[in-house]
Amino acid sequence: MERLLKEKDVKPNELSPLTLAFIGDTVFDLIVREDLICTANRPANDLHNLAVKKVKASAQAGFIEKLMPTLTEKELAVYKRGRNAKSGHLPKNASQSDYHMATGFEALIGYLYLSGETDRIKELYNIIIAD
Q1: Interval 87-120: pLDDT, tens
Q2: Of 6, 11, 42, 105, which one's alpha carbon is 20 to 30 angstroms from that of 82?
Q3: Does 29 participate in catalysis according to the annotation?
Q4: Please, what's the b/e burial string for 3-31 (b: 16 or more CB within 10 A of its CB; e: otherwise)?
Q5: For residue range 33-54, what is the model confidence (pLDDT) as tens digits?
């Protein structure tokens, strides 16, 4: 996976953590969906339900806990910026804690994606799915 609009300059360090989470949410969703269709050809509704289980806030909160020991200092700092960001949004189907952790996770994925560190995203995803 690589950025599709590489010719457009972006400075991930200068973006707000919620902006990073905005793109990170989509990048992670795409990875999960691709993984699911590569695993098996299923009806679209089944694929959707399986994807939702992996991209919901509580799942992402569990993923970041699993990844925490493997994060670099920079990655941890990006995660914490996202986790601590004030979105002004109250989660409907997640605890406040899970929602903030998921936002941090998405900010990290967004940062790595915009930084061109897609191999690192793949490494982290492989850690998440390993069991």
Answers
A1: 777 667 778 899 999 999 999 999 999 999 999 9
A2: 6
A3: no
A4: eeeeeeeeebeebebbbbbebbbebbbeb
A5: 999 999 888 899 999 999 999 9
DSSP per residue over 29-83, as a string?
Answer: HHHHHHHHHHH----HHHHHHHHHHHHSHHHHHHHHHHHGGG--HHHHHHHHHHH
Amino acid at 46: D
Pick the CATH number of 14-129 from 3.90.550.10, 1.25.40.10, 1.10.1520.10, 3.40.50.960: 1.10.1520.10
- Which is catalytic among the residues 25, 35, 119, 131? 25
Cα dist from 39 to 33, 34, 50, 52, whole Å: 10, 9, 12, 16
Q: At 71, is the pLDDT very low, low, confident or very high (cuts 50, 70, 90)?
A: very high
